[in-house]
Structure formats: C-alpha cells, structure tokens
Amino acid sequence: MFDTISNKLQNAFKNLRGLGKISESNVSDSLREVRLALLEADVNFKVARDFIERVKTKSLGQEVIESVHPGQQIIKIIHDELVELLGSTNAGLNLSGNPASIMMVGLHGSGKTTSSAKLAKLLTKQGRQPVLVAADVYRPAAMDQLETLGKQLGIPVFLKKGETDVLAIAREAFDFARANNRNTLIFDTAGRLQIDEPLVQELVRLRDLVKPQEILLVLDAATGQEAVNVATHFDQALNITGSILTKLDGDARGGAALSMKAVTGKPIKLAGTGEKLEDFEPFHPERMASRILGMGDVVSLVERAAEAVDEEEAKRLEEKMRKGEFNLEDFLDQLRQMKKLGSLESIVGLLPGGSDMLKGADLNKSEKEFKRMEGMICAMTFKERRQPVILNASRRIRIAKGSGVTVTELNNMLNRFNQMQQMMKKMGKLQKMMMKKGGMP
Ligand code: GDP
C-alpha cells in the first residue's frame, strides 16, 4: 500500500534521524525531500506546500531545537501532521434513522457496487440488518452483479428489473425494508464515466426523496488527483457526507488519500483494500499514517488476530504444546488459523519495519511451502496425524503420492515437525520450572 511514497519518506527520514543541530537551512533541505515525496505521490500542490510549511514552523520551535534528538522530533511532527492530513480520527457512519439509509454514489468502475456489498457485510458483522437496493436503472448488468453479491453474502437485495423510475424503486425499497425487518438500506446508484448533469439531477431527486443519513462517494485511489476533482464536483452537487477510497491494495500513489480531507473538507470513512468482500475496513488516519511511514499497524494486526483466533482453542493448543502432545492435526489447525489472518504479505506489512522486510523476500515461496505442508497433512489419515510414529515406508509413499511431493520432501517436513515438537516440549518444561521458582507469573 502506498509503496513509493512510503519508501521515499523513509529515505528522507534516514537523513533526518542523523540531524544533530537544527538550523533553518538543514531543516529546509531535509523537508525538500519530503515535499518531493508528496508531490510524486500526486498530492495536491497546495496541500503539499502547506504541509511542509506547518512542519517547518513546528520544527524550528524551541522544543525541537533544544531536544537531544531533534531529527526524531521532526519525524514525530511529520507523523502527526500526516495523521491530521488524513482526517485525524476515524469518522464513523451516522446510522441514526429507522431505517437508516446510505446512498452510494460514484463513477463507473470506481468500485461502487463491490463496496456496497462490502459495506453490507461489515454492517451485518456489527449487528445491523442491511438490504442492498439496486438503484442503477441503466445497467441491468449492475443489478445482476449486486444480486450475485447479495446471494454470496446471504443479504437481501431489492431490485425491480425493467423499472426505469429510480424514485419508484426507492419508495418500494423502504416498504420492503419495513416488511422484512431490515434497518439499513444501501442504495447502489447509477454511475457514469464522467459526472454529467442528467446524472446529478437524478441523484439529487433520489437524495431528496430518500433523505439519507450518509451519502458516500466511492473513489478509485489509483486515479490520484482526479479522485479529488471528482469529489469536489460530487460534493458541490450533493453535499456528500464522506468518501470510500477503493483499490488501496493496488499501486495507488497516495495522493487521493492525502489530499481528500484538506481539499473537500469531507472525511474518508472507509477503505477498500482488495477484491474480496472482506477486504474492507474503516479508515483510520492514525494507522494509515503509521503504515505509510513504515511504523507498522500493530493495532489492526491485533484486531485481525482477535477476529481469527478462537481463544478457547488457543488455550487448548498451548496446553498440548506444553505437554508435548501437539500432533500433526493440531499443526494443520494452526496453519489454517494463520491463513484466516490474511496473506503472509498483508500480515508482515502490518508489522513495524515490515514493508522493509518484504523487499526482496520471497513470500510466495513461503506461502507455497505452507500450502504443500497442508497438502501433505491432508493426505494422511486421522490416525496418522495423531500418531505420526506409525508412518512407515509404505504409508509415506502413499502420502507423498497423494499430495504430489517426493518422499524426501515428506520426510523433511516430518523431521522439521519432530524438531518443532521437541522444542515445544523443552520450552514447556522450562516454563514449568520457572513457574515453580516463581520466576514467571
Ligand atoms: P462500479 O462500476 O463502481 O460499481 O464498480 P465495481 O464495483 O463493479 O468495481 C469495478 C472493479 O474494481 C471490479 O473488478 C472490482 O472487483 C474492483 N474493485 C473494487 N474495489 C476494489 C478494491 O478495493 N481493490 C481491488 N483490487 N479491486 C477493487
């Protein structure tokens, strides 16, 4: 995410860190690099200029000049200003209506339909009962797409194929929501390649009828400055309540995210981070700034882990590890739990310095290795997984064949598993000893 600006800023920081004495000229030199990084990321020119001015003024303040590590202080100032630029805190959704309604607007291809479904999924997880409303009367394909996504999620979709009056659809959608106890309507509206007057007129009429609590503009982050221009237009026409920035997983340079709040005054509320329906998250400026600056995003990682890991199960496994009873079936469980956390790349990317670590690392290889291990264990019978000692030569040949590896590869995996098991046993013993001596809580 935002790799280029992230790398450039981290390079600029290398110089800043070494800064012993602060003077106006050496601060200006260091900040020039930061400014270039912002401009190259397609940050609005004025926004970048004001940003640098603010950082410079604060950097030349008494507190920084007198500090032991002025460079570090400046980095902290840049971090804080970046958080501010991204919107300071997460702007939540206002869902006060009964039913509440959300209008999703945006250009073709921005990710509007996908984000509508992703949002419905997120709200369901938060205990709400959403209904997706197909309000694009010009593109039957968009209706079909929404219908498919709704089915996939088990979330109802209200649609009337052949109806050309979007206001009629909206009225009936409210009746449908009430009759089916749905408390949140998400309107997937029509998009165009470019914003035009007939589209605006239609959206205004729909807005006036629906009176939505939220009008969320869906924007493709990869379009940089253009996304900000689009936002300005939509905001003038509709008075949007915030935006959803999509495709942050791609090669977005960051310009849209970093200029949006300053230029339009409207917060980024949510972010799309991949094609899958779970790749969607509330936009947290603090976490985003830390990710951009290579400081990691441990909070998100812990949140993901809490969602993916079953605590009871974790305790049971820990107990087994300590007693040396951890078998191949448990190992398989662990591999699968880890997968629920996301791809290796996305996990490592959230660690402090993680993006640095990723450079040149062949995660694909590790990911493949995990898959092969999973394949080998899956090819075993339950008994073999629980008691690997019974794995004689003929069983090994069968398993290797079944999982498409050589016997040597299977043997290597089993040897490594044995070593791991020995290690766990030793650690378990050590822990017990320390507990006896009162060395550990
Ligand atoms: P719409 O025309 O605005 O409704 O756009 P769609 O929802 O059909 O999305 C257009 C394309 O962008 C589809 O191929 C989506 O899978 C893709 N897309 C949407 N959001 C994201 C995202 O956050 N990341 C990635 N990588 N692709 C996305």
TrEMBL record:
Residues binding GTP are 106-113, 188-192, 246-249
Q: Which reaction does it catalyse?
A: GTP + H2O = GDP + phosphate + H(+)
Biological process terms in GO annotation: SRP-dependent cotranslational protein targeting to membrane
Q: What is its EC number?
A: 3.6.5.4
Annotated GO molecular function terms are:
7S RNA binding; GTP binding; GTPase activity
Instruction: Tell me, in a sentence or two, what this protein's role is.
Output: Involved in targeting and insertion of nascent membrane proteins into the cytoplasmic membrane. Binds to the hydrophobic signal sequence of the ribosome-nascent chain (RNC) as it emerges from the ribosomes. The SRP-RNC complex is then targeted to the cytoplasmic membrane where it interacts with the SRP receptor FtsY.
Q: What is this protein called?
A: Signal recognition particle protein
Instruction: Name the species this protein comes from.
Output: Pedosphaera parvula (strain Ellin514)
Traced from the root, the source organism's taxonomic lineage reads: Bacteria, Pseudomonadati, Verrucomicrobiota, Pedosphaerae, Pedosphaerales
Instruction: Write the gene name.
Output: ffh
